[in-house]
């Protein structure tokens, strides 16, 4: 006999659901209060806010409890992820000197008529290639100022595909490429398209700050696995394996690295790809600095035969076109690019076609980029030589645009960068911007040599 229901039963059940929901909210409030108290204790003990070991152990316990209760493990882990994000938010005080804040303060000093040496930002002091400027003029003369394909202009996508095919012996087509308004938006587009609420992104610290901020914007947890100077910034693959879970959606890499200048060995990159393949996790490499390679060989993520690999890059660094705001994403899976293009069409409609024409023109003059690379390589060598005279330790960069020294004195990096700015008029980036690195700072190689040398001499005054 079929069961008979009535409206009163439905009403009673809804009341119980409402009551349970309120109980859960009260428990969340109690948990948040405890998290704040834990944060205060950590601050007093000078402990980092995030502890991967504690978090990994808690995950194991939650998985076990989900199994005991008959709850879907993925659901339990997503709830835990959201709770951890909230705990970090209340435990954390915005004590670090954020890079945007420091840049703003440096500009305020300059408005008062004082000169500042800018070693905090990764914007090359070179002018764009002539082809970039001519490309803008030609593009406008060719009436390239109407709506464009949401994926980007066909010829530019074809040229980028050909470029990567030539470099890495691939078989990419134009449908494997999408043109975006800069590299940072490319990252946002990938994260927005792939992440769901409560899922996880794993990266290696020190990391480019937007990885964490974009993840959190999408309601995902950014889990940073720390690397250290003693291991030459190599990733801990055993810890990565332990951290991968049912809610890990993607691994974000950045090699050549900002801020350390590290380039992974091909064997290390292969091991990361193999771990991702086992779990069917996306791997994204931010390859914006891939042209700035000094001695070591660089191998793109696309060189590895993994369908869920994606690279992000831009014209900002290699071609000194930061203000043009043009980047790109390449994936071996056409359906990923289709997904990204639909989202991009919704968000921005399309990229300006005359800007894309300019990018196409500079690709034809790519050999000129070698001059930029040689100059940065020379700056890196000279900078390392002079930094060795100071109480600093650092990894001599394999590539990229930065050096990431550690202060070998009792000196907090926030205090150091503030003193350098206000006492010595040198702008640097605190290591805390890149994760749990309170004794490090990032020095950019994007200013002329004489300014970098002068900046180092002023550091000497502060450190000695």
In terms of topology, how is this protein built?
Elements: H1 7-45, H2 52-69, H3 73-91, H4 99-111, E1 117-118, H5 130-141, H6 154-168, E2 177-180, H7 183-194, E3 200-205, H8 210-217, E4 221-226, H9 237-243, E5 248-253, H10 266-279, E6 282-286, E7 309-314, E8 327-331, H11 334-348, H12 353-363, H13 369-387, E9 392-393, E10 402-403, E11 406-407, H14 413-424, E12 426-427, E13 429-430, E14 441-444, H15 449-463
Parallel strand pairs: 1-12, 3-4, 3-5, 5-6, 6-7
Antiparallel strand pairs: 2-8, 7-8, 9-11, 10-14, 13-14
Helix pairs in contact: 1-3, 2-3, 5-12, 6-12, 7-8, 13-15, 14-15
Care to describe what's here?
The chain is α/β, with parallel strands linked by helices and 464 residues long. The protein folds into 3 domains: 25-91, Chorismate Mutase Domain, subunit A, CATH 1.20.59; 99-122 and 369-463, Aspartate Aminotransferase, domain 1 (Alpha-Beta Complex); 130-367, Type I PLP-dependent aspartate aminotransferase-like (Major domain) (Aspartate Aminotransferase, domain 2, 3-Layer(aba) Sandwich), CATH 3.40.640.10. It has 15 helices and 14 strands. A 7-stranded mixed beta sheet has the order 2-8-7-6-5-3-4, sandwiched between helices. Strands 10-14-13 form a 3-stranded antiparallel beta sheet, covered by helices on one side. Strands 1-12 form a two-stranded parallel ribbon. Helix 10 (266-279) links the parallel strand 5 (248-253) and strand 6. The longest helix has 39 residues, at 7-45. 42% of the residues are buried. The mean pLDDT is 93.
């Amino acid at each position: 006999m079929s069961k008979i229901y009535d409206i009163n039963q439905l009403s009673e059940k809804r009341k119980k659901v409402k009551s349970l929901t309120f109980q859960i909210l009260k428990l969340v409030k109690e948990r948040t209060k405890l998290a704040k108290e834990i944060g205060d204790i950590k601050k007093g003990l000078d402990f980092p806010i995030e502890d991967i070991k504690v978090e990994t152990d808690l995950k194991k316990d939650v998985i076990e409890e989900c199994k005991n209760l008959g709850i879907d493990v993925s659901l339990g882990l997503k709830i835990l992820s959201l709770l951890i994000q909230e705990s970090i938010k209340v435990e954390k005080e915005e004590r670090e000197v954020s890079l945007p804040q420091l840049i703003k303060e440096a500009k305020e000093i300059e408005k008062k008529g004082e000169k500042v040496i800018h070693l905090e930002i990764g914007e090359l002091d070179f002018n764009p290639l002539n082809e970039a400027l001519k490309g803008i003029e030609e593009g406008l003369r060719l009436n390239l100022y109407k709506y464009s394909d949401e994926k980007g202009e066909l010829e530019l996508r074809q040229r980028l595909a050909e470029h990567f095919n030539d470099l890495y012996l691939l078989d990419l087509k134009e449908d494997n490429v999408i043109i975006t308004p800069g590299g940072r938006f490319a990252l946002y587009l990938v994260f927005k398209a792939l992440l769901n609420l409560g899922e996880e992104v794993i990266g290696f610290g020190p990391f480019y700050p937007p990885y964490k901020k974009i993840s959190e914007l999408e309601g995902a947890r950014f889990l940073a696995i720390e690397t250290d100077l003693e291991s030459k910034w190599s990733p801990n693959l055993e810890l990565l394996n332990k951290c991968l879970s049912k809610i890990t959606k993607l691994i974000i890499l950045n090699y050549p690295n900002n801020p350390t200048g590290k380039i992974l060995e091909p064997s290390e990159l292969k091991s990361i790809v193999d771990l991702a393949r086992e779990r069917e996790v996306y791997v994204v490499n931010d390859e914006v600095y891939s042209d700035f390679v000094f001695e070591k060989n660089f191998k793109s993520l696309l060189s590895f035969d993994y369908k869920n690999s994606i690279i992000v890059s831009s014209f900002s660094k290699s071609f000194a076109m930061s203000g043009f705001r043009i980047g790109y994403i390449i994936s071996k899976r056409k359906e990923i690019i289709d997904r990204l293009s639909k989202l991009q069409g919704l968000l921005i409609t399309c990229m300006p076609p005359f800007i894309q024409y300019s990018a196409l023109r500079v690709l034809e003059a790519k050999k000129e980029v070698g001059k930029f690379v040689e100059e940065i390589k020379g700056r890196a060598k000279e900078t390392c030589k002079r930094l060795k005279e100071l109480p600093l330790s650092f990894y001599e960069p394999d590539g990229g645009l930065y050096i990431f020294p550690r202060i070998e004195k009792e000196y907090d990096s926030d205090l150091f960068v503030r003193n350098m700015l206000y006492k010595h008029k040198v702008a640097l980036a605190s290591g805390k911007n890149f994760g749990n690195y309170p004794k490090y700072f990032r020095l950019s190689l994007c200013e002329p040599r004489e300014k970098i040398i002068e900046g180092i001499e002023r550091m000497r005054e502060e450190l000695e």
